[in-house]
């Protein structure tokens, strides 16, 4: 096969509404970083600097939290009628939709998801906003019977939890911003959003669109920057709840930091998700789905199906077909609509994934596909790693245990149902899993036996704001999506009234 060559596409400038030197968004105003410092946002496809992002620190976070606190205590948002919150969120969805092309483009430029899948991912934003707009009018308490000797009426009131600190990763910048803010806003909370340093531009624009939609100043504040800004939110005495999506290690630091003020905490962390293919599976479905479960967005997906367990009678055929499928995937420029696989987000992540490409074979894994970064054909300016399939993987190898967050599939043969369930569960994570079989009884048994927050059967990756998503074990706690999501932004007050 000929070595791939990167299509030459001129580096685009940012759309007009995006600043090339960003500021924080605090109390409805563009605010200079008090550090007086900016850092570069780099296009991982070309290595070009596309913008400079304001470096946030504790002082900026203080200002943003004070603004969110004022907006919550005095401002009109928590006193908006539910139907007004609903109408505003629906307007926000329309505004996001009107800028859909720009938003997808900017996410692609900043974090490297190829433009066609990027457009698919951004479409989830409007879906989430409209879903939570609907729930804004459905929040309700209960009337509860009691056995008090005195004649007392008891009921519950549901109230917004208060000021929310939302700390998000880079692998879906605007998606994560909306996924955190929509239910918080529907519940009547105010927010300080801390985007990832590798995905700040569309969350900033999302904050501006909140204002344009009629969400009052101070309700959604955006402070950009690195971990320092996130850490300042995590232990801030005026933040009532932290909602975090990111790596397990950062999550642990945030949990520890939040303890001093006993914050409510939601944790959406990493995974090492098992994808189990039984011998009776429809391989025409299972092979492409298993491939895209790990190669999509170059494996930089929290629920990536990174451990593919294949029943021994079909193991060799499955590996051959997986390799064939992976080989045919089109690596290319992120702005080429035909591109399926783009770069890794940054130099640091690229080096980290490359280190696993060395560790795997050192531990005895066999490279069946890929295995080395692209260093020619124009790809060398960016951070490209081709789809990689590792065979002869054992459960105890680091590549089978640690979250690589790269396009690296580990294929592991198995012999029985009991064995594969035990091995699938033998991980510190529990975010997602999939099972491929035509046997409905086996499918149901596997769904129950697997310790993970999501299990797909004969499918991989479906998500919807109506369906809960979240982790068992060290993949986190709390659920996003489903009724639990909006619940997590509400307090419950018990009320007693003498009759
Ligand atoms: P990360 O943990 O490095 O960073 C996430 C966010 O935390 C960023 O905004 C970062 O600036 C901030 N941060 C860093 N240090 C901090 C600190 N000490 N205190 C507070 N905030 C801090 O994660 P990442 O590299 O951006 O994202 C990749 C990780 O996210 C992977 O592990 C992936 O599995 C996980 N992820 C999980 C889900 C999910 O829903 N479960 C979704 C997407 C990504």
Provide structural commentary:
With 499 residues, the chain is of the alpha/beta class. The protein has 2 domains: 24-269 and 476-495, Aldehyde Dehydrogenase, Chain A, domain 1 (3-Layer(aba) Sandwich); 274-464, Aldehyde Dehydrogenase, Chain A, domain 2 (3-Layer(aba) Sandwich), CATH 3.40.309. Helices cover 38% and strands 19% of the residues. Nicotinamide-adenine-dinucleotide (NAD) binds at residues 167-171, 194, 196-197, 226-227, 230-231, 234, 245-247, 250, 253-254, 268-271, 302, 403, 405, 431, 476. The site of nicotinamide-adenine-dinucleotide (NAD) has 28 residues, from helix 7 and helix 8.
CATH architecture of the largest domain: 3-Layer(aba) Sandwich
What is the C-alpha radius of gyration, as a whole number of Å? 23 Å
Q: Which ions and ligands are bound to the chains? A: nicotinamide-adenine-dinucleotide
Tally of helical runs: 15
- What amount of the residues lies in strands? 15-25%
Separation, N- and C-terminal Cα atoms: 83 Å
Helix content: 25-40%
- Estimate the global geometry from the Cα principal axes: globular
Task: Briefly note the structural class of the backbone.
Answer: alpha/beta
Oligomeric organization of the protein chains = single chain
Q: Give me the CATH superfamily of the largest domain.
A: Aldehyde Dehydrogenase, Chain A, domain 1
CATH class of the largest domain: Alpha Beta
- Compute the number of structural domains: 2
| CATH fold-type name of the largest domain | Aldehyde Dehydrogenase, Chain A, domain 1
Major β-sheet, in short?
7 strands, mixed
Main-sheet strand order equals: 14-15-16-13-12-17-18
Number of strands: 20
Catalogue the unreliable spans.
Answer: none
Round the mean pLDDT to the nearest integer and report it.
97
